């Protein structure tokens, strides 16, 4: 069709046709194969570059390592914060228990004082009654002394 040039679907087919038939060949991608065996030209698709993909993979691996290190750092900070908070909570609970113990002790002392005051008031009442009886008896003894 094009003189002594044949269009082939791929480079392997073009190389076989050029060697066996002594024709120049060109592929659909633009690669040229001559009957003498030389190959030239062609199209290089940068979107399918293995080197580009390897670079992207390496860049992503570096980024993943950075993100993991950052995540580990955040995790360690969080652990430190939690430990600090746990210690503070334990201190507060200990203080609360101490204050509750003091409160209970003060409450029991107050109850004991209340009981002591109540007993003292009862004892005072009984002493006042006894004093009244003795005053009456003293009065009657004075009367008897006057009679005697």
From TrEMBL:
GO terms for cellular component: chromosome. This is SMC hinge domain-containing protein. GO terms for biological process: chromosome organization. SUPFAM superfamilies: Smc hinge domain. It comes from Eragrostis curvula (weeping love grass). One of its GO terms (molecular function) is ATP binding. InterPro entries: SMC_hinge_sf (IPR036277).
């Amino acid at each position: 069709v094009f003189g002594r040039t044949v269009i082939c679907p791929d480079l392997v087919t073009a190389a076989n046709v050029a060697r066996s038939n002594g024709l120049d060949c060109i592929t659909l991608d633009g690669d040229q194969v001559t009957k003498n065996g030389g190959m030239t030209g062609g199209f290089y698709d940068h979107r399918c570059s293995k080197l580009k993909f390897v670079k992207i993979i390496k860049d992503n691996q570096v980024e993943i390592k950075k993100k993991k290190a950052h995540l580990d750092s955040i995790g360690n900070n969080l652990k430190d914060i939690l430990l600090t908070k746990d210690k503070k909570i334990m201190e507060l609970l200990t203080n609360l228990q101490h204050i509750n113990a003091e409160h209970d002790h003060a409450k029991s002392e107050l109850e004991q004082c209340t009981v002591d005051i109540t007993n003292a008031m009862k004892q005072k009442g009984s002493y006042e009654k006894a004093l009244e009886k003795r005053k009456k008896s003293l009065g009657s003894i004075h009367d008897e002394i006057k009679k005697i």
